[in-house]
Specification:
With 171 residues, this protein is of the alpha/beta class. The protein contains seven helices and six strands. The chain has a six-stranded mixed β-sheet, with helices on both faces.
Length: 171
Amino acid sequence: MPRKKLLLVDTNVISHALSPNQTECYVNLFKKLETDFRFIVTEFTKYELLRSSDKEHRVSIEKYITQNMATVDLSSILIGFSARIYYLYKKHPKLEVRISDGDVINAAFSIAKNCAILTIDNTDFPRLMFAETDRFPVSYTSKKGKATNDTVYLLTPDMLQIKTCFEDCEA
């Protein structure tokens, strides 16, 4: 059996998947993807999910991640590479990006491992460096009872373009 590719799941996707009115549609999306991908999250993603949760929700988040995903530690190598990515985002003339630390870390891991990212907010990963590979419509009923649609994006790092960006900015 072929080895599954890594798929880094962004915080926003997990947040939506854990919302009771959205869980079922995200389970369906994950079922589609799990034949090809192994789901992973960074420790920073876990931190983002846990930092505003009470004890009950922290337990359910931990359980969800443990049962469905592998976790990537924040090594000194990953943090150092993340700093270079942040520098690149700030210095490259074609990258006018406002990005959170978590997205920088996720971008760095994706680039380092050449793995895809699953996200709802594709603007967090600059088009110059990440290509949209696929998109998935996700439909659910909002808490106010309205039909709602999200688009979930599958992005992959454009390694050739990233290398050029690093060289251009001496990052």
